[in-house]
Design a protein that fits this description.
single chain, about 325 residues, alpha+beta, 6-stranded antiparallel beta sheet, 3-stranded mixed beta sheet, 9 helices, 13 strands, globular, disordered N terminus, SKP1/BTB/POZ_sf, RNA binding, Phosphatase activator
Length: about 325
């Protein structure tokens, strides 16, 4: 498949302020961070934090992260302040758990655990000696996919806006405050969208409506690289007190490195697949974003009620990134 050029890609590179990390030698440099995510606490080591995707780090620490004790966003208050800092973070704790678990499992499978070797041990010779038929050579700097576990990170921020029927009771007062009927309507719209878990349905609808070839190439590239066309979001939830749904999907990148233990060639490389995988390196440490409007009509009537059609607009923002663990 032809590469999707950045000039024509439906996902374009975004200029974002990188997460500020101060790693200068300091006597009070933190090795672990204590995070308070909406009342749920996590104790996470520094290496785990720095392995997280840039787009997730920007959500966790929009004002930057400095890994020294003097930089704590807030502290417990008490005699133990010099021992551990507490960061208050406005981020979904269940989503954070999903990301941490996926990255930990992916790392263990690739690098191994004390009780079992990982995939990297079996393919070490690809790094040490390279392959005489390979176009990529032994240089790991040119092809980090040989030594790192690659994970595709796809996030969606969905803001939705309901247009109630004129004949209904849903309305706002003179100050623009929604009444109980409108709040109920918004909740039902949010629940309807929440259960639309298929990743590519909305984007495929946009492709069909606009005949956008670049967006079709994007879907094809992602599905060749690890996703399936029927895949669902790994985690999807309504944001509290907002008409917004946050979703994330993580998949292992298909690098073309094939492990077949017990055969004459325990490790082989599918070079066309490796070439496709290398296209995703464009998004390594460079989150890219796509935004579009999606308008649909939904029937919010309960069982036995007459039809209640509501026009529902959704502003979808996708962020695509590649992480190397």
């Amino acid at each position: 498949m032809a590469a999707v050029s950045l000039n024509n890609s439906p996902i374009t590179q975004v200029s974002q302020t990188p997460v500020q990390t101060n790693l200068h030698a300091q006597p009070q440099l933190l090795t672990r961070l204590l995070l308070d995510l909406r009342g749920k606490r996590f104790s996470v080591d520094r290496e785990t934090i720095m392995n997280l995707p840039e787009s997730v780090l920007l959500c966790l620490f929009p004002n930057g992260l400095v890994l020294s004790r003097q930089s704590a966003a807030l502290s417990d208050g008490g005699e133990n302040d010099d021992y551990e800092e507490l960061y208050g973070v406005d981020f979904d704790p269940d989503c954070f758990s999903y990301v941490l678990t996926f990255f930990k499992n992916a790392s263990d499978a690739f690098y191994g655990t004390p009780s079992s070797p990982g995939l990297f041990a079996a393919q070490q010779h690809l790094v040490d000696g390279g392959s005489p038929t390979s176009d990529f050579g032994p240089s790991t700097s040119q092809n980090p996919l040989l030594t790192k576990q690659a994970i595709i990170v796809l996030r969606e921020e969905l803001e939705f806006f309901a247009i109630p029927p004129k004949s209904g009771q849903a309305a706002t007062n003179a100050n623009g405050i929604a009444n109980a009927a409108l709040l109920d309507l918004k909740r039902k719209c949010g629940n309807h969208l929440l259960h639309q878990r298929n990743i590519f349905t909305a984007l495929q609808r946009n492709v069909s409506r606009e005949n956008n070839i670049a967006e079709q190439h994007l879907i094809d590239m992602l599905c060749m690289s690890g996703f399936d066309r029927e895949d669902e979001w790994g985690y999807r939830a309504l944001e509290p007190s907002r008409c917004c749904i946050s979703s994330i999907a993580l998949v292992l990148l298909k690098t073309g490195i094939q492990h077949q233990p017990g055969t004459d060639r325990p490790v082989s490389i599918d070079y066309p697949q490796m070439g496709t995988a290398q296209k995703l390196l464009l998004f390594w440490r460079k989150p890219a974003r796509k935004c579009w409007w999606d308008g649909i009509e939904v029937n919010l009537a309960e069982s036995g009620e007459p039809e209640k059609m509501v026009k529902l607009w959704a502003r979808r923002v996708w962020t695509l990134e590649l992480s190397l663990v």
